[in-house]
């Protein structure tokens, strides 16, 4: 392969990885979990109470976030304490998303392809 093809493959691979990361952040419940974990470690029961979601739902979202390298857990008795991985970088990404949303106004929520009406 020549350098130009290698560069295109590397760029495609990077864009694919970025798209996967954004899909992991593409659920309101997962974003709420991440925001809550930004305040510190929590058990699943704490998250279910705070978010008003079923335990199985929270656990499934935590598994997704763990598989994407965004959260981790440690045992504490019979429970697990969940926390953010790479908290500073993740909070920077979420803050950047908030700034972009502010700049675009209602465009994303009104988008015919990805907006709230498509849910």
From TrEMBL:
Gene3D superfamilies: Winged helix-like DNA-binding domain superfamily/Winged helix DNA-binding domain. GO terms for molecular function: DNA binding; DNA-binding transcription factor activity. Keywords: DNA-binding, Transcription, Transcription regulation. The keyword Transcription applies. InterPro entries: ArsR-like_HTH, HTH_ArsR_DNA-bd_dom, Metal_resp_trans_reg, WH-like_DNA-bd_sf, WH_DNA-bd_sf. Residues 10-104 form the HTH arsR-type domain. NCBIfam families: HTH_metalloreg (NF033788). This is Transcriptional regulator, ArsR family.
């Amino acid at each position: 392969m020549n350098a130009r093809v290698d560069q295109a493959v590397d760029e495609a691979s990077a864009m694919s990885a970025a798209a996967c990361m954004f899909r992991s952040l593409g659920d309101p419940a997962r974003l709420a979990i991440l925001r809550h974990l930004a305040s510190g470690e929590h058990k699943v029961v704490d998250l279910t109470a705070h978010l008003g979601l079923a335990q199985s739902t929270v656990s499934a979202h935590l598994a997704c976030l763990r598989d994407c390298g965004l959260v981790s857990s440690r045992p504490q008795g019979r429970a697990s304490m969940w926390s953010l991985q790479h908290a500073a970088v993740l909070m920077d990404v979420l803050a950047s998303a908030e700034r972009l949303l502010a700049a675009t106004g209602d465009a994303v929520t009104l988008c015919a392809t990805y907006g709230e009406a498509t849910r």
